[in-house]
Amino acid sequence: VGELIFIGLGLHDGTDISLKGLNAIKKSNDVFAEFYTAKLTGTDMKTLEKVLGTSIWVLTRKEVEEGTIVLEAAQKGRVAFLCAGDPMFATTHVDLMLRARHNSIRTVIIHGPSISTSAPSLLGLQHYKFGRTVTVVFPKENYAPESYYDQVAENMKAGLHTLVLLDIDADHDRLMTANEAMKLLEDIEKRNKMGVIKDDTIICVVGRAGSDDPTVRAGYFKDMKKEDFGPPHHSIVIPGKLHFMEAEALVGLAGAPKKIIDMAK
Amino acid sequence: VGELIFIGLGLHDGTDISLKGLNAIKKSNDVFAEFYTAKLTGTDMKTLEKVLGTSIWVLTRKEVEEGTIVLEAAQKGRVAFLCAGDPMFATTHVDLMLRARHNSIRTVIIHGPSISTSAPSLLGLQHYKFGRTVTVVFPKENYAPESYYDQVAENMKAGLHTLVLLDIDADHDRLMTANEAMKLLEDIEKRNKMGVIKDDTIICVVGRAGSDDPTVRAGYFKDMKKEDFGPPHHSIVIPGKLHFMEAEALVGLAGAPKKIIDMAK
Question: Interface pTM (ipTM) of the complex?
Answer without folding.
Answer: 0.95
